[in-house]
Amino acid sequence: MVKPLQGPNWVLLSLILLGVVAWLWLPVISLAPNRIVPGTPYTAFAVSEGGLFLALTSMLTMLMLGVAWLAWRATRKETWLALGTVVVLLALLPLWLAAAAAELAEPDLPQARITLGAAFWLLWFVLLLALIELRTRLGLSRPMGWLLLLPMMACWGLALWLWLEPLALLREYQARSEQFADALIIHLALVGAAVAASLILAIVGVLAMRRCSGLQRPGFAVLNFLQTIPSLALFGLLLAPLAWLGSQVAWLGALGVSGIGWAPAFLALLGYSLLPMVRNLHVALGAVDPAVIEAARGMGMSRRQVLLQARLPLALPVVVEGLRITTIQAIGLTAVAALIGAGGLGTFIFQGLGQAAMDMVLLGALPIIVLALVTDALFGTLSEWLRPGGEL
């Protein structure tokens, strides 16, 4: 007899039941004849009343109910079965969407567009949370979690390539593919430059604080003050001085420094990135066991050798956590920089809001979410591996 892990998995059970309710009663997709006219919403079982599509919809529903039953049992065997079923559900969702697009397609309406409804987004999100819950419950590593997503990503790629041409989000991308590539590059460049500069300044600042303790209080006071200024207000404060500098200093003007564009965006991102970076680095270096430092000094190490060979290696996991927090924060804040002409993925968000085109908003928002999640996973894995005795 398989021994239960901890009784019923209430987290998984709640998530799956929420997904089932959304799947059965909320609109899953909507069909619009063109980009302007509002679409007609459809629930999962309202797309088609018969045929293979109805069987596929019923199978997805039964699989979700099966996961709920397995969550109630929650033995180790049932938990593994639930994990496999969730992986299958995530892989089947894009295939179901492709089948729904085929069912609703009308030859007389070549410009028809299919938009993902609230139920689809909610169910997808719920299943991903369920995957994380099951991976954690079974004690699987982060790389294994990424491997579990491969079937879903393969099915999404196949569906987008072969069958999902009417998907509104895909059509928005196709109409702006070159602009999207440029916006992604600008977004990544702003984030990378701000995070790299904040790391360098944080190292210099923390070393200065450690040498002269009197700098610690005013230094953190300034950084805390910068963090309290709203992003749009900070952009406004930088507009006038940067415009003046760009007009008065020739080489700054040649670099494109002005009141709008990349310069205020970079400085604002740098200002917001400094506090988490400096705080984590300061805490990491100060949290090293004093006995280790005394042992290093007893071995004849200089102050520089103690820092590079003792303090920094032991503090590295916490430093990486600071990099993770700072980078994720910068990825989100860079979207706002589009308001001052800095470019980036936020351009699509604000253009979509201005045109009431939610698919264009998603064209900018979804890559930002994906970038943040990938960054969190990569830095989290690296931090875990760098910890003493850590494993991937």
Automatic annotation (TrEMBL):
Xref: Pfam families: BPD_transp_1
Gene3D superfamilies (UniProt xref): MetI-like
All copies of domain ABC transmembrane type-1, residue ranges: 184-379
Localization: Cell membrane
Organism: Candidatus Halomonas stercoripullorum
Keyword list, A-Z: Membrane, Transmembrane, Transmembrane helix, Transport
Residue ranges of the TM segments: 12-32, 52-72, 79-102, 114-132, 144-164, 184-208, 220-244, 250-275, 331-350, 362-382
Similarity annotation: Belongs to the binding-protein-dependent transport system permease family.
Superkingdom to which the source organism belongs: Bacteria
Membrane topology label: Multi-pass membrane protein
InterPro entries linked to this entry: ABC_transp_perm/SBD, MetI-like, MetI-like_sf
GO annotation, biological process: glycine betaine transport; transmembrane transport
The name this protein goes by in its record: ABC transporter permease
PROSITE patterns noted in UniProt: ABC_TM1
Any one GO CC term of the record: plasma membrane
